[in-house]
Design goal:
alpha+beta, 3 helices, 2 strands, about 25% helix, elongated
């Protein structure tokens, strides 16, 4: 009985640190994952199982954004076709409809 647990006794009785922890604020994101729509149910189930490993209450949010970008899923493909968004690794670069300032200055001399 109790052979599977380490007997600590008075070890750490003077407030010495026993391990490392993360300070997390209420509402702070703990984990995020990006996946295809076909794997959505598997990812939600994985997060549901993982949240039992953390103390407190965790919520699972499914984002309406495309990947880790700041654009919505329904707007993203259209913006890519128009050339407004250009792929940049795992993210995208936004190209506004107007040109650089140097081109504007050259036009308005």
């Amino acid at each position: 009985a109790g052979a599977d647990r380490l007997q600590t006794g008075m070890r750490g009785a003077f407030g010495k640190p026993q391990g490392t922890v993360a300070r997390v604020n209420i509402g702070q994101t703990l984990m995020s994952v990006r996946s295809k729509e076909t794997n959505k149910d598997s990812v939600i189930e994985a997060f549901r199982r993982a949240k039992f490993k953390y103390p407190g209450r965790q919520k699972i949010y499914v984002s309406t954004k495309w990947g880790f970008t700041k654009w919505e899923k329904d707007v993203y493909p259209e913006m890519r076709r128009e050339g407004t968004l250009i792929k940049d690794g795992v993210n995208v670069q936004y190209r506004p409809p107007h040109g650089p300032l140097a081109a504007w200055k050259a036009r308005n001399k």
